[in-house]
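Reagents: none. Just compute today. NAD(P)/FAD-dependent oxidoreductase.
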Amino acid sequence: MVKERARILVVGGGYVGMYTALRLQQKLKQELRRGEAEITVVTPDPYMTYQPFLPEAAAGAISPRHVVVPLRRVLGQCRIVIGEARSIDHAKRTATLTTLATEEEGTGPQQITYDELVLAPGSISRTLPIPGLAEHGIGFRTVEEAIGLRNHVIEQMDIASSTRDPAIRDAALTFVFVGGGFAGVEALAELEDMARYTTRYYHNIKAEDMKWILVEASDRILPEVGEEMGRYTVTELRRRNIDVRLNTRLDSCADRVAVLSDGSRFPTRTLVWTAGVKSHPLLAATDLPLTERGRLKCTPELTVEGVTHAWAAGDAAAVPDVTAEEPGKETAPNAQHAVRQARVLGDNIVHSLRGEPLETYAHKYVGSVASLGLHEGVAHLYGRKLKGYPAWFMHRVYHLSRVPTFNRKARVLAEWTLSGLFKREIVSLGSLEHPRAEFELAAGGKPRTDPKGSS
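Predicted 3D structure written out:
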């Protein structure tokens, strides 16, 4: 039993936010029923996105709705608020929020009070002041971006197939990806695999007509799977005629021309930016201690250092790695740690409310897996290195075991089974991004043009 009524505010509905709220919901079942505890989750989206499945969703191997987990269904005992926390005054135990109704109400942001704070807003894309990036770049962190990119790639193939201008055709069939981490490599590999398959249905486009370019500023890609597997990945991608440029930066993409630091210029209608992440801006709008990199200073028990009743984990938190040999090392901001930290975080909040000793988060990183398209992958797990089909199979098994809820596991497995029995879907539904465009035009409005240049 908790010592007194506890109002718990969870900011963020990603890995840490959802799993922490789920753990609290399980551990405080009786207290929630008696009204002794209350859990509020503030999140911009009503779902949690399982990001490792985004590349496969972009390639059409998984339906978009099966990549996300609806929070209201999973967190039935929690209050879900669709909105964004703009600032937090922990000294006063208040958070300032804007919701979907804030603008229409005209009353300005609202304040919510709490007793325990879980700060897990995640991270945002780290961009650079590169000319043309804001106008022409495409991100790859959300399910909307993944499906939008799939539609965009197929649309570019349609443009290339129908144009009589060689310059337009060349630009439409040139796809530039910036960033050699998991997101960039897996997205490029899956989409290239899909596009290569799709060319069989075009009478005037061959796989060799397309240019796929991966730009990475360092001297290696996929550092998480080790140097040897990183080199293998480069070799495998180049075997598929993918142009991998190491020690190379994007200098400009103004006027839809990708200019690289090695002097190369590529007219392109597709530039995907996956070059890292940075701390969520909310962290700077709090009175909590931050590191030089803008993350929350945390203890091994996942409390915010020097502050009571404040907790954090995942991308937003700098958590000491107690399993590391060298002092001062922090746990990597990845999904593997986030899910495990959320479980300990939820338990520690319950321990704190009941006056019990806290647990220390200690988990040794077991390795990584990456998919390189159908039946291709690399993995470095428990010190063992895998490549090709075994690594691809391990990638699917590992992530199937980690995706939340039995419902999602069953649906994803069913889709994988069906995709093995039938041909790929190669339909572009680009009109989904502007569903009212046709009606607006029919009603006398002006057709809208998206910033990438397609109507």
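The radius of gyration is 23 Å.
Action item: order primers for follow-up constructs.
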